[in-house]
Structures are given as C-alpha cells and as structure tokens.
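Lab notebook, design round three. We kept the backbone fixed and only want residue identities now. Task for the bench partner: fill in a sequence for the structure below.
Input structure tokens:
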C-alpha cells in the first residue's frame, strides 16, 4: 500500500443500554464485522462520549433508569450531534416510535428483531454489508 493512500477510519458505533447482556451481545456482533463499538450504560455516559470522540451511529435504548432514550436523543440533537441514532426497545409503542422519529431518530427497532435486522441497519446507516448468518 502506498503511504499516500488514506485508509478510512473504522466506524464508531455507540451501544447505549442499561442491560449489560444486550451491550455485550451487540459488542461481540459488531466486533465480528470489523466495527469499533463503544459501550455506554446510560445517556449521561453517551453524552460524554460524543463530546470526546466522533461517533457515527448510536444504538440507543428507549427505557433506561437515569435518563430515557428520548430525553438523551433530545439532548444529543440540542448539543449538535448529527450522527445516526437508532432507537432500540423491548416494547412496541406507536406514540414512542413517533416521538423518537420526530426528535431525530433515524430508526426504531424492537430488540426481538434487532439481530435479524442488524445487516440491514449497518448497510443502511453505515454503508457496510455483512452477511446474515
């Protein structure tokens, strides 16, 4: 490789969920596909992360104890964050879905379908094609 060639930076995906099992499962899946996941246990941790480094996509849980995903999303947008935000949730709720999309989320995905939809999400929001095993 010519030293003048520029390598694209690895995509940074923030996984924000108060459930460590969900964070770990998503982390393992993203690492397997060459992505750089950063794990956050809540919204405040995410807000600190995006101030310290570029984040391409945020996978943000809707229901968390310290700050809801919707509140976090609003604070992200108010702070000028322009990255992609994918809301993830265990509960289908039309009103919450509408509120999230109106607040600037790009997608709203049920956790029960998250791993099945991961190839589509990464292709759509990061331009990365992974095989669905």
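Proposed sequence:
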């Amino acid at each position: 490789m010519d030293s003048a060639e520029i390598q694209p930076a690895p995509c940074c995906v923030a996984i924000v969920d108060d459930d460590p099992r969900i964070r770990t499962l998503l982390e393992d899946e993203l690492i397997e596909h060459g992505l750089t996941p950063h794990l956050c246990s809540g919204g405040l941790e995410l807000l600190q992360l995006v101030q310290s480094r570029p984040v391409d996509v945020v996978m943000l849980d809707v229901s968390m104890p310290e700050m809801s995903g919707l509140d976090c999303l609003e604070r992200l947008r108010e702070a000028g964050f322009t990255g992609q935000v994918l809301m993830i949730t265990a509960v289908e709720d039309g009103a919450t879905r509408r509120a999230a999309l109106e607040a600037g989320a790009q997608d709203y995905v049920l956790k029960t379908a998250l791993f099945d939809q991961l190839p589509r999400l990464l292709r759509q929001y990061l331009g990365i094609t992974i095989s669905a095993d």
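Keep this in mind before ordering anything: The helical segments are 20-32, 43-52, 69-78, 94-102, 111-126.
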